[in-house]
Amino acid sequence: MDETLEDLMKNMEDMRGEIASIVAGYPDNMHEFLESNPCFKFRINETYFFNDFAAEQLNEIALGSLNIENLVPDELANIHMKQYFTFLFETKDTFFGNARTVTNFVEETEKNQQLRMAEINVTDHSKQMMEALNLKDVEEFRIKSGLQQCNSEIGFKLTSNEHQTDN
């Protein structure tokens, strides 16, 4: 990584006025990055801060992405999506990923819809059915206390009875 940064700084100096270098990241990480080498402050002369998307915007982005895939949520799915993105926005931390959050949501929702459709006999499929999202497709994205993620769990769980030792 240090070699890459050295190459970047050299090119920024050698090609001053000919190239533009763009670095992006979370605000605290970017501040730390710029402070990591005194030369950055002098070579990177403009910085921009972009606010996180609001909950309504996250929902609109998700709807647009789903629309590209010819998927339209029904009323209950749409209500759940709005509530989910509102919850995420209101409980976000410093590592909240706008685009990543929506992309993960859309990809998982598409998969859920396709799995639901696979359970239905192909001869019963209609165009409207193939393009519809319902609550079942988005319900794994639950609103609950603490850090919010989809219902999928990775790893191990220990109950209070496991791994007890007798002394």
Principal-axis shape:
elongated
In which order are the strands of the major sheet placed?
1-2
Mean model confidence by pLDDT: 83
Per DSSP E runs of 2 or more residues, the count of β-strands stands at: 2
The H-and-E topology, N to C, reads as HHHHEHHHEH
Which range does the strand content fall in?
under 5%
Structural class: mainly alpha
Helical proportion, percent range? 40-55%
Termini gap? 51 Å
Q: Could you give the topology of this structure?
A:
Blueprint: H1 2-14, H2 27-35, H3 38-43, H4 55-68, E1 72-73, H5 75-90, H6 98-118, H7 127-130, E2 132-133, H8 135-138
Parallel strand pairs: 1-2
Helix pairs in contact: 4-5, 4-6
Explained architecture:
α4 packs across α5 and α4 packs across α6. Strands 1-2 form a two-stranded parallel ribbon. The C terminus is likely disordered. The radius of gyration is 23 Å and the shape is elongated. It is an all-alpha fold. The chain contains 8 helices and 2 strands, in the order ααααβαααβα.
Provide keyphrases for this structure.
167 residues; mainly alpha; two-stranded parallel sheet; 8 helices; 52% helix; elongated
